[in-house]
Structures are given as C-alpha cells and as structure tokens.
Design goal:
436 residues; alpha+beta; 5-stranded antiparallel beta sheet; 44% helix; elongated
C-alpha cells in the first residue's frame, strides 16, 4: 500500500510541476509568436497524443514521468545545420527571435515553478496546516520556541528552515523561549561551522534537547513494512530487554543505539501488562523500529491565515526556500555541506506518498517546496538546463554575438556529464536511505 501511495504521489507531483514548468515555456513562446511543434509531459512512448487543429501543435503524455519538453520551430538544428524551414516561416522560429525574447521564453519555465510555489503555499495557509509545537528542554525546564532571531516560528518545520537560514549565513542563533508559566527566556545556540557536513536533521545536529509531546512512550502509528506487527497503537512501552523505559526519549535512544537487535517488549495494553518480541533494523547506522509516537492534541498547532496574510506568507516562504536552496547548493559545491543529504526521485516518491497519506495541506506544502526546488535546479548555470542557456543569452547581450557553436557543443557534453553525476549520487543516496 505504501509503495502504491508513493507511486501515485510521485506521478501526481511530478506531473503537476513539469506541466506547469513547460507551460511557462509554451505560453511565453506563443506570446513571442514562436510556433510550438510539440508539448510533451514525460518522455518515451506516448500514452496519449493529440494535435490541435488551430495551431497544429502536438500535445503528448508519455510513459516516463521524469520531465517534459516544449519543441519549438527552429531554422537550424543543434549542430548548426539548416532545417527544412521555409524562409517565410523564419518569423515563427525560436532561434530567429531577438536575444531578449529567447531569454524570456527560456526563463519562463523556472519562473512559472516559483509562481506555482506561491499558489500552493497560499492554498496551504488558507486551508491550514498542522504541526507539532517546538518545545525544548533548557536547564531541566520545558520551553516553547517562540521566535528565532526575531522571526516567529510555530511548527518544527518553521524552526528547521530558520536554523538552516542562519547557519548558511553564518549568523548567531538566538531563541526566544516561553515557559508554561509564560516566562520568557533568551537562549543562544553555539554551533560549529562544519555542522552542514553532518548527515541528518539540522535540528538534532545543532544540539536542541527536543521535548516530545506528553513524553510518554505510547505508540501512535506503526509502519507495517518493518514487520513489527506485534506492536499495537496505544501500547505504553514499559521496558525493552529489561531496560526501563520512562519516556519516548528513552525508547528512541535505546533503539538508535541498538541496530540489528532482537528485542523483548514489556507494555501496558489497555490496562493489561503483556510481553512480545520485536526487531530493530539498521537505518543509516542507527537503529530504527518503524513506529511513531502518539501525540496529544494540545501539542499540535494548526497554522492558517486569511487570504491576504496567506499571500504575504506564501511570497516570503517561496523567497526563503529559493534563497535557502541556492545557498545550500553553493555549500554542496564548495564541500561545506554533506552530499549524503542530497535526495533523488526515490526519496521524492516516498515523501510524496507519505504527505498524500497525511492530508491535502501536507501534500500541497510538499508540492510548493518541490516546485521551488525544480525552479532553482533549472536556473543553475549548467548546460542542458534552462540556466545554461540563460548564460549563453547573457553572453550574447553583453558581447553582441552568440557564443561560438563549438563552445556550446563542448559545454553540452560537460552538462550531460555533470547532470549524470548528480543523478547517480542522488539515486545512490536514495537506495542507502530507503533500503539500508
């Protein structure tokens, strides 16, 4: 069932993002009076295809949902040889348009992805999205994180983004905390500059002492694929292999430190003390049980806004994620961030399936983040991507002539090799992350 959800979520997510990206190229090309020969979502053999009687454009839906393309009329092919195009049709050719029009057509795809992110973020905030209140322990007292360097945070995801923003910008991190008695406390976090080289979640890596809601080791959900079917939702774990479990944190620490271990569980199930067995798996060198914690409603917060506030929040979220993604890529290139945190299609499919199960708002939120990522990725100055072509056009604007064809062809080979390397690393990380 989880595999099916991942597949459905992936197809829906990629289908929406790619279609809107290619529509950006398409609509601006049509606006610039360029003839579009084909609009394709996906690659390979077409599942569905139709030709517009009005524009003679072929619209296709293909079997491999990993991209798409818009084929435009051009007077020359990639090698610089002349295509069989009538001279009277040159005015409809993409390569015959001025450099500013070509720049606009190519940049429209990534820009439309950022616009789509704003739309999805707006819908998310209008509909409302839930999350766990960010609470930590400081000097043996419980505090909720209210803001980070002056920016309000309400969910752990907000905390994660703000911490990443400040770490990437090498800023000091100051938390405004509030106790259950409404007493405020300013708390500073010190961190090593190499923290981004660590694998895993930035929240845990930076050393926050997270307080899990209600803190008792009560099972809230069970992932059936990990074959720990003896567990039941509502079980209060009392001990593991004779070790007393007083809190969820105790359970997590024990499990993480004991990968590939058979365990004996003593639990309270509906007032009855029972004993059963389980298996701790290995995930990235740490133990993993495949169960999650039961959370009290008081630990949840629903974040929602009115229309105008949602739009404002959507613009700021899109800007934050765009800048954050660019800077994180820069850190990856310079070796200041861990390449093992790079994700590929398999992880995207897994996240899509889980967010689809969690509800409409979570799926919209994921689509918004993925749309930003797709837009940023295509703006990178790598040949074969939109950003690579934008570099060519910028050169042409500055110099007055096109970049020589031999340099463009050489750059294409470099671009293919670089993209191939990135995909191999991403797939490798996916396999290690999912199947370890």
């Amino acid at each position: 069932m989880e595999l099916l959800n991942s597949l459905i979520g992936f197809i829906i997510a990629i289908g929406i993002l790619v279609t809107f990206h290619e529509y950006g190229h398409f609509i601006v090309a049509r606006f610039c009076n360029v003839k579009v020969l084909k609009f394709s979502v996906g690659f390979g053999k077409p599942i569905f295809s139709t030709v517009s009687k009005k524009s003679n454009t072929e619209y296709s839906l293909c079997m491999i949902p990993l991209g798409g393309y818009v084929q435009m009329l051009e007077s020359k092919n990639a090698e610089g040889n002349s295509n069989d195009v009538k001279e009277s049709d040159y005015k409809y050719c993409f390569d015959r348009k001025n450099v500013y029009q070509r720049f606009a057509i190519v940049s429209a795809g990534p820009i439309f992805n950022l616009i789509l992110a704003i739309i999805f973020f707006t819908m998310t905030y209008l509909n409302g999205i839930g999350g766990i209140k960010p609470k930590i322990e400081v000097a043996n007292d419980s505090y909720q994180i209210i803001s980070i360097n002056g920016t309000e945070v309400q969910r752990w995801q907000d905390v994660r983004v703000e911490i990443l923003n400040n770490v990437i910008n090498d800023k000091k991190i100051n938390l405004l905390l509030q106790s259950e008695n409404n007493v405020n406390l300013n708390h500073s976090i010190t961190y090593d500059q190499s923290i981004l080289n660590k694998e895993g979640d930035i929240i845990q890596n930076i050393g926050l002492d997270i307080i899990y809601p209600d803190n008792s080791a009560v099972i809230g959900s069970i992932d059936k694929q990990f074959n720990n079917s003896n567990f039941q939702v509502g079980d209060r774990v009392l001990s593991i292999n004779g070790n007393e479990i007083e809190s969820w944190r105790d359970l997590v620490l024990f499990i993480q430190k004991n990968p590939n271990t058979n365990i004996s569980i003593l639990a309270n199930r509906n007032g009855e003390i029972i004993e059963y067995n389980g298996k701790v798996l290995n995930k990235n060198g740490q133990g993993f049980l495949g169960v999650s914690k039961q959370v009290e409603e008081s630990s949840f917060v629903i974040v929602s806004y009115g229309l105008f506030d949602s739009l404002e929040k959507a613009f700021s979220s899109t800007t934050d994620y765009t800048v954050l993604t660019f800077k994180m890529i820069g850190r990856l290139v310079t070796g200041d961030a861990n390449v093992k945190n790079l994700s590929g299609p398999l992880s995207i499919a897994q996240f899509s399936g889980k967010s689809l199960e969690m509800g409409f708002s979570y799926f919209l939120y994921l689509l918004a983040i993925l749309s930003v990522s797709l837009g940023v990725l295509n703006l990178l100055p790598i040949p074969m991507l939109d950003g690579g072509h934008l570099v060519y056009y910028t050169y042409e604007m500055l110099v007055g002539n096109e970049l020589p064809l031999k340099f463009q062809i050489a750059a294409q080979f470099v671009g293919v090799a670089l993209l191939g390397f990135i995909m191999i690393v991403a797939f490798y990380n996916d396999f290690i992350r999912i199947f370890s």
